[in-house]
Design goal:
The protein contains 21 helices and 10 strands. By secondary structure, the chain is mainly alpha-helical. It has a two-stranded antiparallel ribbon with strand order 1-4. Strands 2-3 form a two-stranded antiparallel ribbon. Strand 2 and strand 3 form a beta hairpin. The chain starts with a helix and ends in a 19-residue tail after the last strand. The C terminus is likely disordered.
Amino acid sequence: MLRKIRTAVAIAVIAILTFGFIDFAGVLDNPLLQKIQFGPALLSLSAVTLVCLIAATLIFGRLYCSVICPLGIFQDFFNWLSRKFDKKKKFGYKPEQPWLRWGVLTVLVIAWLCGFTFLVGLVEPYSAYGRMADELFRPVYLFGNNLLAAICEKFGNYSFFKVAISLKSITAFVVAILTLLVIGHFSYHYGRTWCNTICPIGTLLGFFSRFSLFKMRIDANKCNHCLACQRKCKAYCIDSVSQKIDYSRCVDCFDCIDACRQKAISYSPIKSKDISRFQASADSVDESKRQFLKSTLVIAALAPAALEAKVTGVKDTRVPMSPPGSVSHKNLLNHCTACHLCVSKCPSHVLKPAGMEYGLGGIMQPVMKFDDGYCNYDCNLCSQVCPAGAIKPLTVEQKHSTQPGRVVFNKNICVVNVNRTSCGACAEHCPVQAIHMVPFEGGLTIPETTPDLCVGCGGCEFICPVKAVHIEGNPIHLEAKAPEQDTGIQTTDFDFGF
């Protein structure tokens, strides 16, 4: 019964999480489940979420990995699929490899402190699944929607509408495919090995789950060492011969309970006779692991100073523009795990996965590009959905006064100057009068900019036919000047048919 309940809840959770990424109609603009993911909560220093998740682990064990984590649930699907094709598939017990688990975590901590958030985002489970959902599952969903819309149109039903399908980033697409192949291979052949060797969240929660109140327990009087539970354990953590369970790797899937015909395994709280044994195990902390953690902290503290000169990003003629609410390039680099929730939710398709705009450490993090549209002046959706604190929540009014970038005008290539013809599209699309038209030659008018008013929406860059205007990003976001405060400009409305 426990396994069926867990499976039902897990299916509901991953369905809601996946729909949050592929939803293009804005049905789930502010999904709650994204806010309780351990990795984003850790990077955003969300104390309430972290305390609740750690407390839940100390009480129930690693249920998070089987019920809330989308990548964990995704791995269970591949494990289920493998058993459908191989009815005789069996697992077994394998000793823990603490040097591998803690070694990977150490490398990721050092990488994060040195600004290589890209490495953290590659293996952080929520972000890894989010990229797969956005880059791989979303196009399939959109194709199905477009097919349904086409069928309905033939019968005069216009309840559905077609949506453009495009490749946002080759890098993100390739990474998503590789992630799917690697995770799929591991889970299909080796169960939850990825969770207990590579996943940093699994390592952290595994440490707390050693001391959880509710655990899988083997009744020595009922157990006949048949190995049924050991063969069903996809975490390789049950040693049926010695009747021991490695609680740091157990993900509370409850498969072993259904496999045991002797009813020797139960999921229950600690008993009074086990308290002394529990305390003894808590006191017998591996001294080598303690020294290992100390060394990790020392190295992590010294690493940023040693590599500070190297982690400065890639210089470019254009300063990249981070989303409104991200505060600065540095804040985005320190918190964003490239889960792509903001990218998938952006209604104007302005947010794209970055290449080398932010440097090596910021690959696949959101960057604003105005090739396919411009940022809606009254839209603050990306700041509302970010679970990691990389994009701070902004009200619409706060966004109006935030300046993530400033307008730049190149008169030398403007069509008014080059072709001596009328334009003015950029001024018409500016919501804050940062671009206005002034007299030029022969009765023509030409754009003039007031960068202090600019809010970096990109409307001018998107509409300009020759890219004579573009938005230059601010490494640290500034406060835009209110249009009504600029009294030295007389604006005139022009109608050029745009």
